[in-house]
Design a protein that fits this description.
The structure holds two protein chains of two kinds.
Chain A lengths: L4 E2 L12 E6 L34
Antiparallel strand pairs in A: 1-2
Chain B lengths: L5 E4 L2 E7 L4 E6 L4 E6 H10 L8 H14 L15 E6 L24 H17 L4 E6 L9 H18 L3 E7 L5 H10 L2 E5 L4 H7 L9 H14 L2 E8 L7 H12 L4 E6 L18 H18 L2 E3 L21 E3 L4 E3 L11 E6 L4 E4 L1 H9 L13 H4 L4 H5 L5 H16 L6
Parallel strand pairs in B: 5-6, 5-12, 6-7, 7-8, 8-9, 9-10, 10-11
Antiparallel strand pairs in B: 1-2, 2-3, 3-4, 12-13, 13-14, 14-15
Helix pairs in contact in B: 3-4, 5-7, 8-9, 9-13
The chains are: A mainly beta, B alpha/beta.
């Protein structure tokens, strides 16, 4: 989520008063969008999409 | 009134989650849209759904924002169909260790090591497969079983062989290691020169580290491991510290951050993971046990906030708000080629004996590996997201969590949900821009 755009509604629009705040999210590029390479790195929570993240390797 | 947690919209998931001061979060992950709405509006959306026929102005506003988001929506790719462009090899060189950690997942300490023949065959298989499939590289990690540096001769010989294969095949290699850091200058130097990524286990100040992670003979380990941390911070490009959090240390997480900052500066990532009841942790329950999940959440948030002010990035594995995933990790589906010291091939680096996810084995007589297709498919099936997650706002971030947690009957949903909600709230409050 590298970029977050806050888009507060104009306060003078009295009829739109139940949507209090609004954000457009921009996630890290990752394999759910397409068949990308995934992360070539391994490391606990780096997060490697293709390998064990190591959370239970205590 | 009971609110619906989940409302489908044009094939996308929209979640409603109660927040503070009579407000709700409306979260559409694949539409990349996050709103804070009033409880009254959440109630109407819950009752009527999100359809064009609704003539409610505020519902229409929500609809128009979601429709606008359809243009740039993320189309999920089924992870189990993904073919990796890398070969992932994990080597269990040894089951031995120089530390006697109270909670060791692998119950390390046995004098069992990988044979030369097996090591050569595993490397040969990895590079041949990478060559035949025109893969972009071979990723090699040492995380299964004991401490990889315990048999130093075997470890250095292994690194040398990897370099030989790399140059013979002209295929790039990335070498990474999870290590206990309990060794002297020469070893640190070799590691820094030859490994690309290092994850060092260091749980906190001396009183925590020495309780959790004494040497095999019961001596303190803090001073040696601290020196390794200082060295790796300066000399390894990709370096992180992992702190396992027990019932003993959970309330000290902010102090751990503060202590590390004073001792080590801030040029590293710090990973906090709650101790889970497996391996030696199921035996030493009187000395150390899993932390309360409620405490972990509260003190993790405090630690993370402190980390932000000190310039230390703090993470935990399951609750990553920066990514959307359809499965927790690819190890089960690709599958990862993790070779234990006995020559069992398994998907999971926690599975140091290959008993849970083993899908192949090394045959010394033919110097080759054989695989069980049924077991490969069974491992893939473990990636299915549990039914209970269907309506959970967290599911695109944890994908039902690590399949191994289900195997050991450990549930950290509370932690995942609370931490993801904390991150989403921070975004809406404008206090998080990462």
């Amino acid at each position: 989520m590298n970029k977050v755009l806050m888009e507060q509604f104009p306060l003078n629009n009295v009829e739109i008063n139940e949507v209090l705040s609004n954000a457009t999210l921009d996630f890290e590029k990752n394999p759910i969008g397409d068949d990308t390479d995934g992360c070539p790195r391994y490391g606990c929570t780096c997060i490697a999409y293709e390998k064990c993240c190591g959370c239970l390797l205590q | 009134m009971e609110f619906k947690k989940y409302i489908p919209f044009n094939g996308h998931d929209v979640f409603l989650a109660p927040s503070s001061e009579n407000t709700f979060i409306l979260y559409a992950p694949t539409l990349k849209r996050l709103l804070r709405i009033t409880e009254r509006l959440a109630s109407r959306i819950s009752e009527t759904g999100l359809t064009e026929e609704i003539h409610d102005k505020d519902v229409q506003v929500v609809l128009s924002l979601l429709e606008k988001s359809l243009e740039n929506a993320i189309k999920p790719f089924p992870t189990h169909e993904r073919k990796s462009r890398f070969f992932h090899l994990a080597l269990g060189l040894t089951k031995n260790c120089t530390l006697g950690c109270l909670y060791c997942h692998a119950n390390a300490g046995a004098k069992e090591e990988m044979s030369d023949e097996l090591l050569n065959s595993a490397l040969h298989y990895a590079f041949e497969t990478a060559k035949q499939n025109e893969l972009k590289g071979v990723n090699i990690s040492f995380a299964v079983g004991g401490e990889p540096t315990t048999n130093w001769e075997l470890f250095t010989s292994c690194i040398q062989r990897i370099k030989d294969f790399e140059s013979r095949y002209s295929i790039p290699v990335h070498i990474s290691m999870t290590t206990n850091g309990y060794y002297g200058t020469n070893k640190k130097q070799f590691i820094a020169e030859n490994l690309h990524s290092v994850l060092l286990s260091l749980d906190g100040p001396p009183e925590i580290q020495n309780l959790h992670r004494p040497s095999i003979s019961g001596k303190e380990s803090y001073s040696t491991v601290r020196d390794s941390a200082l060295f790796f911070i300066k000399n390894v490009k990709s370096f992180a510290i992992r702190s396992t959090v027990s019932n003993h240390s959970v309330k000290k997480m902010p102090q751990i951050v503060e202590f590390f900052f004073k001792e080590l500066g801030n040029q590293y990532h710090l990973v906090f993971e709650p101790l889970v009841p497996l391996g030696r942790a199921t035996i030493n329950t009187l000395s150390v046990s899993e932390p309360s999940q409620h405490d972990f959440v509260n003190y993790y948030i405090q630690a993370k906030e402190l980390g932000k002010s000190l310039g230390i990035e703090i993470r935990t594995s399951a609750a990553n708000h920066k990514r959307l995933v359809t499965s927790f990790c690819g190890a089960m589906s690709i599958p990862s080629f993790t070779v234990t010291s006995k020559g069992i091939v398994t998907t999971c680096e926690r599975d140091s004996e290959g008993k849970d996810y083993g899908y192949g084995k090394y045959l010394p007589e033919s110097d080759n590996f054989v695989f069980d297709e049924e077991k490969i498919n069974y491992n893939k099936s473990l990636l299915s997201i549990p039914g209970k997650c269907k309506e959970c706002f967290c599911k695109w971030h944890c994908a039902g969590d690590c399949p191994d947690t289900r195997n050991i009957n450990y549930d950290r949903c509370f932690v995942n949900k609370r931490l993801i909600q904390y991150e989403l709230e921070s975004i809406l409050n404008g206090t998080n821009n990462k």
